[in-house]
Amino acid sequence: MTTDLLTLPFRLAGFALWFAKEIVVSSLTVAKDSLTPGHASTPRVVRLDLGEVGDVHVAMISILITMTPGTLTLGQVGDGTGPRSILVHSMYHEDTAGALADLHDMDQRMARSVRMGDRA
After folding, report:
1. What are the C-alpha distances in Å from 114 to residues 8, 65, 66, 82?
2. What is the pTM (predicted TM-score) of this model?
3. Which residues, including other chains, have CB under 8 Å from residue 83's CB and lie 6 or more apart?
4. pLDDT digit string (tens) for 16-67?
5. Which burial class, exposed, middle or buried, applies to 46 when counting CB atoms under 10 A from its CB (0-12, 13-18, 19+)?
6. Residues 6 or more apart from 2 whose CB is under 8 A from it?
């Protein structure tokens, strides 16, 4: 637990840098699509299964997804008990599998950056 507490600032800083890069890359993609003729978007709605996580986890990943240009969290599926899922609108993923892979990657990176002990 002490090691987790000591590494927390570094893990958070690492995640913040990674997320800032994602914001820049996504912003450039949206800007390019907006400024060029035609549309490169491939809009889709995907269901991101989060598993057995708490309200704070769902809120955090939902906020991060919505902050990323080209994606939007539409809401939570179900009543909030049992395994959790959220619906995400994505504008620039080629296919559903790619969208889910990127979203799961963000979820895992966020969870690792704030993890204390055995909890996610």
Report:
1. 7, 17, 19, 22
2. 0.90
3. 49, 50, 51, 52
4. 999 999 999 999 999 999 999 988 899 999 999 999 999 999 999 999 999 9
5. buried
6. none
